[in-house]
Amino acid sequence: MEAILERLQATDWDRVAGMMHEKGYAVLSDIISEPVCDTLINYYPEEQRYRKKVVMERYRFGQGEYKYFDYPLPDLIQQLRTTVYGKLVPIANLWMKALQIDRQFPGKHEELLALCKANNQLNPTVLVLNYSEGGFNTLHQDLYGDVFFPIQIVLFLNEPEEDYTGGEFVLTEQIPRAQSKAIVLQPKRGDMLIFTTNFRPVRGTKGYYRVAMKHGVSEVRSGKRYTMGIIFHDAIS
After folding, report:
1. What's the alpha-carbon Rg for the chain, to the nearest Å?
2. Mean pLDDT of 41-57
3. Which residues have CB under 8 Å from 38's CB, separation 6+?
4. CB-based contacts of 115: which residues, under 8 Å, 6+ apart?
5. Which of 80, 82, 147, 177 has the greatest count of CB atoms below 10 A from its CB?
6. Assigned fold of 2-230
7. Residue of 150, 223, 225 lying closest to 186 (CA atoms)
8. Nearest to residue 147, comparing CAs of 166, 122, 174?
């Protein structure tokens, strides 16, 4: 974990902020080592770690499955969630200010969770997603309640073109009064993708306006694809 924290501390967060403001996403390369990726994948069959399993086909979310961790989270995940949140809060608060939304997020993650608790959002939202051949995830937003942090992350746990093919990460951007724009990404094993949960501000001729974004996963053509999603707010259920 110390090596991961060192990589995060060495990251140029001003550059990350610039990418988030410009595009709504940023890819940080080689944040998670291969042994840690393997550890996170090996958590998947350990049912006692999870509060809920979702089979996507049952809800027409796609094809595949994911599991939500229960509290207490493994130390590695807890530290990642807390550390990265602190780096992203300034970006989120600038977005709220730019869009003239009367909300500022607290500087510490436990304060955000206290706000979630006050709104009956008590359940952790960190999850591991597992796709096999034919698997995909429809476009969506991970909101879970009235209180939501506007940025989240995904950790890529195995290697595209080696462990699986296809399975690209897809973002769509809905610009007002225009057609949606698709953004297709294929981060490598150990990479961290930071991206917009719901919307981001874009500067126009009359100031900033809100651009809605959704995310999903294209069809996996072969192999198995594992990722871990870290959402910073908790869920009602």
Report:
1. 17
2. 96
3. none
4. 106, 147
5. 80
6. Jelly Rolls (2.60.120)
7. 225
8. 122
Cα distance between residue 9 and residue 12, in whole Å: 8
Whole-prediction pTM: 0.96
pLDDT digits (tens, 9 = 90+) for 131-166: 999 999 999 999 999 999 999 999 999 999 999 999
Show Cβ contacts of residue 159 under 8 Å, excluding neighbours closer than 6 positions: 188, 189
Phi-psi region of 196 (alpha: psi -120 to 50; beta: other; left: phi over 0): beta
Q: What is the pLDDT of residue 179?
A: 87
C-alpha 235/C-alpha 237 separation (Å) is: 5
Question: What whole-number distance in Å separates Cα of residue 92 and Cα of residue 65?
Answer: 30
Q: What SS3 class is residue 43?
A: coil
Task: Report residue 167 as tokens.
Answer: 């399975």
Alpha-helical runs (H) found in 99-177: 109-118
Q: What angle do CA 129, 130, 134 make, to 5 degrees?
A: 125
Q: Is the sign of the CA dihedral 44, 150, 184, 216 positive or negative? A: positive
Whole-number pLDDT of residue 132: 98
Nearest Cα neighbor of 192 from 153, 152, 146, 136 is 153
Structure tokens at 87: 């780096």
Q: Give me the chain's average pLDDT, please.
A: 96
Under the banding of pLDDT at 50, 70 and 90, the label for residue 237 is confident
With a cut of 90, say whether residue 17 has pLDDT above it: yes
CA gap 100, 33 in Å, rounded: 40
Residues 103, 89: Cα–Cα separation, whole Å: 12
Structure tokens at 175: 């610009």
Determine the angle formed by the axes of helices 75-98 and 13-23, rounding to 10 degrees.
60
